[in-house]
Amino acid sequence: MNINTILIVLGEPNSTFSEILFKYFKSSDFKNLKKKIILIGCKELLEKQMMKLKFNYSFKQIKQIQHSKKGIINIINIDYKYDNIFSKINKKSNSYIKKCFKVSLEILKKNKNACLINGPISKKFFLNNKFPGITEYLANLTNSPKKVMLIYNDNISVSPLTTHIPIKYVAKNITKKKIIENIILINKFYLNKINKKPLIGVLGLNPHCETTDKKSEEKKIIVPAINFLKGKKIKINGPFSADTFFLKKNIKKYDVVLGMYHDQVLTPIKTLYNFNAINLTLGLPFMRVSPDHGPNSVMLGKNKSDPSSIFFAMKFFNNLK
C-alpha cells in the first residue's frame, strides 16, 4: 500500500495551524513533496488569514479526491460562519470541526492510499471531556479498540501507556494486557513502516521502580508483561527508572520508550528535540499524524509560531511508501 495523498484537516480555526501551514508552503520541502496534498476546511477563512499574515498562495477547490493534483494546494471547502479572522477559541467551531473530520474519514474509508494530518483542536471546547484526546476521538469514530499514541522521532520515539488522564488515575489504568497490546502495535509499526526491528525500553511507574506500598506495579504488572513480550521475540528491556533513562548513553541504545503516563515521556522528548517530532496514532485503519503542538492561542495572528513539527510530519509521509 503506497501513500500518495495527504489529507489535512485544518482543525480549530482560531489556532496557529494555518500560519504554520503557510510557512511550510513557502519552503523548498513543499516544492519537493512527492504526495498530493488536500486541505479540508474553510477556504474563505484560510485565504483571509493568509492575507492577514502576508502570505500569498492559490488554493484549488475540489469536491472529490480524484480531482486533486500534485504540486498545488488542493482544498475541499467546508463552510464556516466566523465573526473575526482570528478569535478566542469557543464552542462555535465544534460543528465545523466535526464536519471536517467526517469528510476526511469518508475519504479515508474509500481511499486506502491516503493518510491524515489533523490540526490542533481544543480539548476543553471540542472534546468537552468526552474523550481524553484526538487519539481516542478518532479511535471511537473508526471503531478501533486498540490505539496507541507514539511520539515519533528518527532518533528515539516515546509512547505513554496512559494519555490525557489525571495523574491520580494513572495507576488504575496500567495493566499487563495494555502494555502487551501497545508494545505489539509499536513493534509492528516499526517492522512494517520503518523497516526496522526496534529495541524498546519500558519505564517503571514509581520513583526508582520502588515503592513502600504493598502493591508494586513493577513486580505485579510491568515485569510480567515484559517477560511475556520477550517470549514473543520482541526486543524489550526494563523496567527502568525514569529519572536516569534519558541520559545520552541510554537513549542511544533504544528506538522506543514506553512510559506509564503522559509527562513521564513527553517532557524529556520535547526537551531533547523541541518540535522535531510528530504524534502518530497506531491502531487506526489509516495512518494518522498530528503535529506536536496545540492551538497556541497566545501567539494567534502574530506570525511567530515554530513550524518545525509540520515540516517533520510532511517529511515523514513524503518518505513513507
The general outline is: globular
H-E string: EHHEHEEHEHHEEHEHEHHEHEEH
Q: In CATH terms, what is the fold-level topology of the largest domain? A: Isopropylmalate Dehydrogenase
If you compute it from the alpha carbons, what radius of gyration comes out, rounded to the nearest whole angstrom? 20 Å
CATH architecture designation of the largest domain: 3-Layer(aba) Sandwich
Biggest sheet architecture: 8 strands, mixed
Please identify which CATH superfamily of the largest domain we are dealing with: Isopropylmalate Dehydrogenase
What's the count of strands? 12
* The level-1 CATH class of the largest domain: Alpha Beta
What is the helix content? 25-40%
Pick out the low-confidence regions: none
N/C terminus separation: 7 Å
Strand content is 15-25%
Biggest sheet strand line-up: 3-4-2-1-5-12-11-6
Structural class computed from helices and strand pairing: alpha/beta
Number of helices: 12
Kindly give the count of domains: 2
* Average pLDDT, all residues: 91
How would you describe this structure to a colleague?
By secondary structure, this protein is of the alpha/beta class. The chain is built from twelve helices and twelve strands. The protein has helices at about 15-25, 30, 45-50, 95-110, 125, 135-140, 175-195, 215-230, 240-245, 250, 260-275, 310-320, and strands at about 5-10, 35-40, 60, 75, 115-120, 150, 155-160, 200-205, 235-240, 255-260, 280, 290. α7 (about 175-195) runs parallel beside α8 (about 215-230).
